Structures are given as C-alpha cells and as structure tokens.
Amino acid sequence: MQPRLNAARLTPLNRALRHALFGAALGFAAAPATLLADEPGSTASVKRYSIAAGPLADALNQFARTAGITLATTPQQTAGKNSPGLQGEYEAHEGLNQLLQGSDMEALNQGNGSFILSQRLDVGSAMELGATAISSTGLGGTTEGSGSYTTGAVSIGKTPQSLRRTPQSVTVLTEQRMKDQNLTNLKEMLQQTPGVVVDQTDSERVNYYSRGYQIDALQFDGATLNIDSRNGNFIQPDVATLDHVEVLRGASGMLRGSGNPSGTVNMVRKRPTRDFQGSASYTAGSWEANRYTADISGPLTEGGAIRGRVIAVHSDKDFFQDARMERKNVLYTVLAADLTDRTTLTGGFEYTEMDATGAWGGLVPDFDGSPLPFSRSTFLGANWARWDRTNAHTFIELEHAFDSGWNLKLNGNRSRLAYKDHGFQQTSLARSVGATNPYLWDVNYNFSDGGGRTNYSNLGAVLDGPFNVLGREHRLTAGAEWNEADAIGNESVWGYNARGVDVRNWNPSTVNKDRINPTVNPQAHTITTQKATYASLNLSLADPLNAIIGARLNWYDFDNQNSTTGDYKVTQEVVPYAALIYDLTANISAYTSYTEIFAPQTSYDTSGSLLEPMTGEVYELGLKGEFYEGRLNSSIAVFRTNLIGKGLQDAEALANGITCQPTFAQGSCMSASGKSRSEGVELEISGEVAPGWQVTGGYTYTTSEYLKDSAANTGNALRTTDPKHLMRLFTSYKLPGQLSNWTVGGGVQTQSDTYATNTARTARAEQGGYAVYNAMLAYRFNEHYSAQLNANNVFDKYYYEKIGVTGANYYYGEPRNFAVTLRGEF
User: Fold this and answer.
1) Thinking of the domain 153-268, which architecture would CATH place it in?
2) CB within 8 A of 196, min separation 6: which ones?
3) 326-337 mean pLDDT
4) CB 3.0–4.6 Å: which of 64, 224, 292, 692 could bond 734 by disulfide?
5) Are 684 and 194 in contact (CB under 8 A)?
C-alpha cells in the first residue's frame, strides 16, 4: 500500500480518549515487555531520514513516503506551520514527533502503520493521563527545552545518529542537566562525565583523559579544530552558548585525523529559534560569585525564514584560595536564513574575554611526596599575578536537502586564542637546591609582553544519503576536511625572584616583581596542517543487522617557522573503521566496533628516516538500550585500546655505537617498538526512568599498562593518577500533585585510590578513594519564573583534585559551597 495523507477530524473527546489509550500503551511499554521483539507489521523499525527544515506539510509527506506509513491529517492542521526537519535514524513515531516540534500537534499511533495528526492535548482542559504514563513526545537532536538528561540524536559522527545507532561509547550532557547542576564551563561538565579524568596542569590549563590517554582535540558542531585544552590562552567554553556536549570515548580517527585513542569532545552550539523566546538569570554563590546571563532568540522576518539569537554572559568571582579572582564576559550572536525550503545558511560569532589571577602551581609536597599541612585557602602565588586572554570563534554553515533524501553540508570555522598585552605574569616554585627543610623553595617569575596567539581554522564538506541495492536501503557518507593550527608563542622574560623562601610565611600581597639574571624566551612559531578525505557505508545486511565500514585518508604537515629543522609530514595515512550493529529486540542492540587513529612522531631511525606514526586501535563490544521512544538510553561496553609503535631508544643501535648522525649528533637512534594498552568496562544510563524522574550516570573500570617501553615504565600503569574505578551520578525528580512546582535532585562523584611517584621512585604521593555529594532544590513560581539552590560537596569532604611528588602539584578540591539562581523565561 502506498503511503498517503488522509483527511480526518478529531473532537476534543476523541483526542482525550486517544491520549488515555496512548498513555496506557506507554505504561505497558515501561514494563519488561519492552524487551520483546515487535510483532510483524510494527512501525518500530528504524529508518534513516534526511528532511530539511521547511513547511510542515511537505516534511510530513516526505516522511510518510520514506517510512511507508499512513498519516491522517487535514490541510488546516498544517497550514502556515513549519517543521525543524529531521536528520538521522528514527522509529516512525519518534521521527514524526521530532518533525512536529515547535507546533501544537502530535502524532497518535493507530497501529498497523497508521498515524493520526492531532492537536496536542492540554491536560488541564481535558483529562490527566495516568500517573504511570511517560510523556509521549520523542526527543530530537536539540536538547534545549526538552527537560531531558538524554538526546534523540548526536552529531559527533558527521551525520546525526541516535545513541543506540552509534557503535561507540558516547555521553551527552544536555542543557537541562547543565541547569540542574549549575555547570558553567566545559571543565565542570567533563568533571561530571563518566570515564573522563580531569587533570589540572595549573589553575588555567586542564588536561582531559579517557581510557588512559589524553583527549587532545575539541569539536564544535562536529567540526574538528584540534584545540588543545592545555593551551594557556584557551578559555573553557561557557555553557550558556551550548545546547549540549557530546563526549565520545575511544579512537576517533574517522572523525578528526591525528591524535590519541582516547576520545573526542563535541560542543553543539545553540541556534536561533523560529518562535520568539527569551530568558535571563542571576546566580549568587560562595566566595562572592556573581553570574548574569541573557538570551534572546526568534524570527527576524514573518514566518521565521530569517532568525537570530544573542546570548550574553558576565561572571565575577573569587575563589576559596586567598587573593584569587576571575572575571569573564561572553557575547554570542548567530543568524540563520532559509534560502529555499531545502537550503539553510547559518553563521555566528562568539567572543570571550577573561581576566584572572591564575595560579601557575598549587601546593608543595614534603620530601617523601606526601602533602604538607597547608590550609585549603593557601595560595602560593601573587595578588598581582595575571592570566588574561581572549577567545574568538567564527563559523558558517550551508545545508541543503535534496529531493532524493541526500543531504549536503558545508562548514567553515575559525578560532583565535590570544593573550592580552602583558596578560601573563606568574610566579612558580622550585625546591631549593640542597634544602633540608621541606618548606624552603625558590621563587621564579615569568613576564610576557604579549603577542602569543593561536589561530585554528577548519573547512569541511560532507554528503550523506540513501541508496538501494538488492531491495535494501543503505547509506553512504563521504566528505573532505582541512584543518590548520597556526601558533605563535609569547615572548617572555624569565628569572628567579628569591632563593630559599619559607612558604609557611607566604603572603600573596608582599611578593615582589624582581627578576634576577633574567633570560628572554623568543616567540616560537609553528603551523600544523591536516587534510583528509573519508567515506563510510552503512549497509543493511538484514532487518536486524547493519554493517558500517569506512576509511579516512590523511595528510599531516608540521612546519617550524623559526628553523630549517624540525619539520615533518605524514602522507596518505589510511585510518580504517568497521562496526556491526544487531537488533536483539525492538529496544536493545548489540554492537562491536574497530576504530583507529594515528599520531605522527618526530624521532628518526638508524637510516635517518622519520619513524612511522603510532597507531591507536580500539576494540569495543557492547549493548545499547533505547526505551520510551528514546527518552531513556542505557549502555554497557567492554573495550581494549592498544597504542602501537611509540618511538623507543634503539638498544641494538646504541650497543653498536650508531648515533643517528647527523640527525641527532648527541642522541641515539629510535625504533617504533613501544606498545601500551588499556582495557575496561563502562556502564551508563541517561534519561527519564519514570514520570518526572531524570537520571544520568555511569561507572567505568579501567586498567592500563606499558607493555613495552623504557625500563622505568614497562609493566606499570600509563597514569597512576587515573582511578581504576570511577562513578558519576546525578538525578532529579519533579514532585507530583500539589508539590509539582518543586524539583529535588542530588548526585555523587566517587573514585578509587590513586598515587604518583618520581622517576627514581623515592617519593610517593597517594590519595585514598573518596566520594563528593551534591544536592539541588528548585521551585517554579509560575510558567515564567523559578529559583534554584545548589549545594556542592555537601559534607565538606577534604580531597585533592590533583596530587604530585615534584613541584607545586597538590590542588585541593572545592570545599562545601552554595549557589542560588533566579531565572526568568518568556
């Protein structure tokens, strides 16, 4: 039977009855029966859609043709209404409700592949659904306004896919979760992400690790900029501009080129809305923290063909350490224009400036590596210290949906990260030579005259669409990408300030700016260029089985602008990808995947040739569940990660006196013989488990080992400061009945013990396992205004965010603190 749109009329009573019946059906769906396969003729089979934003009637017709369903509607129901479009894989009912987002309509399932379009029921004017009914609207790729802790689609894989259809471990932090936990920047979000370890280099530079390896690149809207979070001029992105954040764990060479087999962080920006909306908030917190946000979005022309959005943030706060402060301003503007019913052009600009005291180190250890008894308020820095910088991000996108279901996306991104003039002035500590008192340290002072900046650029194109072979629909994704990182370091002056200072008597306000025997560090200038083409096939082998195969062809070029040496390149490096997804039931899929990534090296072998790139490979096997039309997602996975080919000292060449002349006149040859491994288990759940009850959390168990490395490393863990056991959990519940204006929530971050040693293993820092508990209480006064209280580290747990045996590498975690937010929405 051909798909068709039929005329139908529903009275308010009919609509109410259908709502009640649909609620009952969802109640059955919440039971264990959800694990059973669908009956023949069910509409629960997943198909892929590529429907552009535009008139609602056109979108529904295209969906009905692709899905093979019958949809009953009237011209009056769709007249003058638009749809946000649909990209990715969905079941029929879920996809229909995604197409209907922003309208007052919903699709009611009649069974046997038939649906009726109906005005969404106002439960206050008709009848309440049963207490066990889950809300009937499916989720899309936008989390704003969904109230959910999960999403219907992620974009980290170049094209939208549901979490269930992504054969790797992915965590999503939604807008609602950011609000409920009062998260304000990327670092705070990743501290709440399962399987991610946040490691402070100092107060402003942060490393992120997953599965034993560093996450060394960031994405915006799926476009890789290779921004390294360790860069001193990088500002952690503010959540006010983000719809959600996607964190993929494992090798991601198909997505971004070179790097570690650790994962990728994709930040998805907020976009203009077709309907007018606005919000403003004020947050007051501990240590004189004040934060203001404003967000206005809506149509600029009748019908919303051109629309815009402006978001502004100002924050001003001190810290629990004495004399530290941070001031930040953010401005984000974005415009979108429908050039045709199938073509949309979007462009935006985000500017962030931050002035901060910063801290180029934490607290110092004893000789044996144990912590010295400093209070949490101790700041071993100067009150005149500065870490001032600006970040500017510009982007443009063009999307076009063809009649055949194919979709083309072109994008360009540019980011500029820079220090302000004289923006970097910091002190650091080094243990005094020959000291017998653990509190005696030398003070160094570094002053930058500015000029340090990094420009990141990205151009990309991706074409995606379906095709039919042997009576089955498959999908092809192909694209090309170009990235450049042009980095100029600060011209800085370095010198020691004082010798043998007893840090027990440290006073940040009395540190002077003297520099004894200063040295000037010239500006380094490097340009790293990457380009690639890639393609992947999603093959429908049988109704329950899909195979995904793909490859990326890479070129990598590093150019040291200050020298005629140190340049290197990698040409035509192939990175493969393969996965299988098998639907065990209508709600549960099993998957296995093999992913790779490469990392260039700078060492040379006995022939004077550059070592081949290291290869990171990840084997993953798991189960993913998707329930309540995608409003609840869960997963379990086991993985093994290998990093192969690390350059090690060539023992045979060294024994035979081969010194790699003339490349390394004073060094020894290297061989690509190193190997390391990590493996473990990950469990995760996110979304609505019952009406009004949102949960997000995960547990990871990870072990790692240097299988072949230097004598000091072989047999040891890659990072002893990464816990084997790590759990993140947060949940919120909207109270029922007369208390429905109240929402309560709470969470915990817990991890097992960690330690650190020096190279000679004569000193050891260690920390036992600990748990930090957080709580939230929110009250909605009416549809426009609400208030929220957050309490972090409720039991005031003393713990260290970082431990270390050398230098000033002990960092306390935040003491108990509170924040109150007042929010208005209209």
Assistant:
1) Beta Complex (2.170)
2) 190, 208, 209, 210, 215, 247, 249, 263
3) 98
4) 692
5) yes
Average confidence (pLDDT) over 554-574: 87
Cis-peptide into 662, omega within 30 deg = yes
Cα–Cα nearest to 598, from 681, 672, 706: 672
Cβ atoms of 588 and 623 closer than 8 Å: yes
361 phi, psi to nearest 5 deg = 150, 165
DSSP 3-state of 243: strand
**Amino acid symbol at 808:** A
Name which residue leads in pLDDT, 110 or 168. Answer: 168
| CB 644, CB 615: distance < 8 Å | yes
Distance CA 146, CA 184 (A): 19
Contact 808, 429 (CB under 8 A): yes
CATH code of the region 48-108: 3.55.50.30
Backbone angles phi, psi at 241, to 5 degrees: -95, -5
Domain borders along the chain are 48-108, 153-268, 269-825
DSSP 271: -
745 token code pair:
């929530």
Closest to 808 measured CA to CA, from 398, 380, 362: 362
| CB contact at 8 A, 811 and 799 | no
Q: Model-level pTM?
A: 0.83
Amino acid in position 410: L
C-alpha–C-alpha distance, residues 51 and 56, integer Å: 11
| 14-50 pLDDT tens trace | 444 344 333 433 333 333 333 333 333 344 567 778 7
Mind listing the pLDDT tens digit for each residue in 770-779?
999 999 999 9
Q: With 0-12 CB in 10 A as exposed, 13-18 as middle and 19+ as buried, what is 474?
A: middle
CA distance 403 to 399: 13
pLDDT in tens, 586-642: 999 999 999 999 999 988 888 878 899 999 999 999 999 999 988 999 999 999 999
Q: How far is CA 390 from the centre of its chain?
A: 21
Strand-pairing partners, residue 299, are 307
Q: Is the dihedral of CA 141, 146, 151, 156 positive or negative?
A: positive
CATH class assigned to 269-825: mainly beta
Q: Find all residues with CB under 8 Å of 19, minimum gap 6, and list them.
A: 121, 123, 126, 127, 129, 136
CA atoms within a 13 Å half-sphere pointing along the CA-CB vector of 80 = 4
Give the C-alpha separation, 84 to 533, whole Å.
Answer: 30
- Sign for the pseudo-dihedral over CA of 132, 137, 138, 141: negative
What CA–CA distance (Å, rounded) separates 195 from 724? 10
